[in-house]
Amino acid sequence: MGFLDTILMPLQWVVAWILAIFHTLFTTIGMDPAGGWTWVASIAGLTVVVRAVLIPLFVYQIKAQRKMQLIQPDIQRLQAKYKGKKDQFSRQAMAEEQMALFKKHGTNPWASCLPLLVQMPIFLSLYRVIFNMQGIALGNIEPIGGLTQALAHQAEEASIFGVAFSSTFLTSGGLTEGWDIKILTAVMIIAMGLMQFFVQKQMMSKNMSEAAMNNPFMQQQKMLLYIMPIVFAVGGVYFPVGVLVYWVVSNAWTFVQQGIVIRNMPAPGSKAEKELMERRARKGKSPLPGAKPLAMDDPESTDGGVPSGSTGSAGTSGQRQQPVGRARQKKKKKK
């Protein structure tokens, strides 16, 4: 057993048990134990369990992003304070004040990366479980969790479109060899990269204000919007089909979950918030839950600059009293 397997063994044990439980569940309802789609469904089940467990972290991510929106005026004032100052002392002071601001409001500009970072050990554990399946099936490696030798043998026999779950884009040597493996893995890698791109694009285009997008941290996020899909595409050639299934399902979950949250709980000042207000206006509801009623000094609630129903300085008539010259005032007094 290698060093990586030793470190990840607890997670591998959990991943193997979840796969075994879902495999048993699907075979109980009549699916083929050695069928490829049975194992696809089992990996999809594993993905759903992992993402459900990560929902609290996703909620934290959304809250952190909302707080980042709210402190944008403070960040802009800080940027104006150090504008044009390029010396090392000023840059360090600005960075320290920014970090103090984030700490005060309990947010972090990198909170959007947390779900991905937490999933990485799970992803590596699934990778190692699939990688070791052949050794378990042959009896060279001890079973992991619920993944017995018989179950590993069934997994090794399983395939989708004639491609085994342990196959990678690089499994076949030449360009003309194993074209079925290359086509399937290439399609899944492209799907994985595109979903990753649209997840980030959805967040930036729908759920961020213009002020937030002009933040230097968000400029770095824009770069990641294009870099991350490329990283996944390059690394994807080394991923087994089973791991690619996990990432495609996981990214699809993220896209749908994020879309629901953005639609119903948009960030202040974002495009999604404007769309929500428009939907509520069409239904005759208040702009947003808890919206303040129309103020008395609002132009729509006044008549000629004086609130309707108010006597003002003209008594009960509600009309503005016209100015009177001194000569006319003296005549009125004499009368």
From TrEMBL:
<keyword id="KW-0813">Transport</keyword>
<comment type="similarity">
    <text>Belongs to the OXA1/ALB3/YidC family. Type 1 subfamily.</text>
</comment>
<feature type="transmembrane region" description="Helical">
    <location>
        <begin position="37"/>
        <end position="60"/>
    </location>
</feature>
<feature type="transmembrane region" description="Helical">
    <location>
        <begin position="12"/>
        <end position="31"/>
    </location>
</feature>
<feature type="compositionally biased region" description="Low complexity">
    <location>
        <begin position="304"/>
        <end position="318"/>
    </location>
</feature>
<dbReference type="InterPro" id="IPR047196">
    <property type="entry name" value="YidC_ALB_C"/>
</dbReference>
<keyword id="KW-1133">Transmembrane helix</keyword>
<dbReference type="Pfam" id="PF02096">
    <property type="entry name" value="60KD_IMP"/>
</dbReference>
<keyword id="KW-0653">Protein transport</keyword>
<keyword id="KW-0812">Transmembrane</keyword>
<dbReference type="InterPro" id="IPR028055">
    <property type="entry name" value="YidC/Oxa/ALB_C"/>
</dbReference>
<keyword id="KW-0472">Membrane</keyword>
<feature type="transmembrane region" description="Helical">
    <location>
        <begin position="181"/>
        <end position="199"/>
    </location>
</feature>
<feature type="transmembrane region" description="Helical">
    <location>
        <begin position="223"/>
        <end position="249"/>
    </location>
</feature>
<comment type="function">
    <text>Required for the insertion and/or proper folding and/or complex formation of integral membrane proteins into the membrane. Involved in integration of membrane proteins that insert both dependently and independently of the Sec translocase complex, as well as at least some lipoproteins. Aids folding of multispanning membrane proteins.</text>
</comment>
<comment type="subunit">
    <text>Interacts with the Sec translocase complex via SecD. Specifically interacts with transmembrane segments of nascent integral membrane proteins during membrane integration.</text>
</comment>
<feature type="region of interest" description="Disordered">
    <location>
        <begin position="272"/>
        <end position="335"/>
    </location>
</feature>
<feature type="domain" description="Membrane insertase YidC/Oxa/ALB C-terminal">
    <location>
        <begin position="39"/>
        <end position="262"/>
    </location>
</feature>
<keyword id="KW-0143">Chaperone</keyword>
<protein>
    <recommendedName>
        <fullName>Membrane protein insertase YidC</fullName>
    </recommendedName>
</protein>
<dbReference type="InterPro" id="IPR001708">
    <property type="entry name" value="YidC/ALB3/OXA1/COX18"/>
</dbReference>
<keyword id="KW-1003">Cell membrane</keyword>
